[in-house]
Design brief:
This protein has about 280 residues and is an alpha/beta fold. The chain contains 5 helices and 17 strands.
Length: about 280
């Protein structure tokens, strides 16, 4: 789906935009390693090493972690079976396949309501299934939802299964108050029940995470963990983690707004903070 990006006179697709970003980065000498997954990060004094799942190691005096997050899954019957053929996690990517049809959006937050609004411009009907008694989306989104006549909201509805043969045809839902089960006939379902950070590679490291797995930085770091001694006579920088010299930016960081423009800004800020950090680094020989 084409999008309008500042600096581009004509609409461009996400693939085209990302490809141009890659070309620009390579023009300035940035080395990009594709299809590389991180196994862990090791630190020794003020030197850090990123270890990939293939055993390759990349070392430096500073690291910026911007691995983002992914949409949380329901983990119910049929979700894996109909993944990509009825069950989706991106309205902008897969919504156009359901023009004139009936789709469901699962969730009640900003992402879910935004998806329902977008799909309401494509699909014939949209059923917004909310597990709670009310929406948690901002009032701005809720006001827009009131103007969308083909979006129907069903509160206290928990999806417990996806059904069909070759493609998704029905949702099994349960009323969380009464326990009564029902089936909703749909052509597609879009799941928006929150985000999970891509931080599994940090679980065995000293990088502090919150209970949801997002990286703690700056003033959000808990002072009772004993890490302050690592910083000497200074406080951690704004996007610096519990390990000096390791920074985090974007959706992977606790407190980020989970918006692409904000993530890009955080990346720039983190890069500038790295520059300041390196000015004070004393290397051991």
């Amino acid at each position: 789906m084409a999008m309008h990006v500042p600096g581009f006179p004509q609409p461009t697709t996400g693939f085209e935009f990302s490809d141009r970003l890659r070309e620009q980065a390579e023009f300035f000498g940035v080395e990009i390693l594709q299809s590389s997954s991180i196994d862990t990060i090791r630190s020794q004094d003020n030197y850090h090493t990123v270890v990939t799942t293939t055993g390759e190691e990349f070392s430096g005096s500073a690291i910026i972690i911007c691995t983002g997050s992914h949409y949380r899954r329901l983990n119910v019957d049929g979700e894996d079976k109909f993944l990509g053929i009825g069950v989706h996690y991106c309205a902008a990517c897969d919504g156009p396949f359901y023009k004139g049809q009936h789709v469901a959006v699962l969730g009640g937050g900003n992402s879910a309501v935004e998806a329902a609004l977008e799909l309401g411009q494509i699909a014939d009907r949209v059923s917004l299934l909310v597990r709670g008694e009310e929406l948690t989306a901002s009032s701005v989104y809720q006001d827009k939802l009131d103007e969308q006549e083909n979006v129907n909201i069903r509160f206290n509805n928990m999806t417990i299964g996806f059904e069909g043969r070759a493609r998704l045809r029905r949702l099994r839902v349960k009323d969380v108050k009464t326990g009564v089960e029902d089936r909703v006939h749909v052509n597609g379902a879009f799941v928006f029940i929150g985000l999970e950070p891509n931080t599994s590679f940090l679980e065995e490291t000293d990088v502090e995470l919150n209970r949801a797995g997002f990286i703690l930085t700056g003033h959000n770091l808990p002072a009772d963990k004993g890490w302050p001694d690592r910083y000497g006579d200074r406080l951690p920088l704004m996007f610096e983690t519990s390990i000096p010299g390791i920074f985090a930016a974007g959706d992977v960081r606790e407190g980020s707004t989970k918006q692409v423009a904000a993530a890009a800004g955080e990346g720039v800020t983190a890069a500038m903070l790295v520059r300041e950090y390196l000015k004070g680094v004393k290397f051991k020989i």
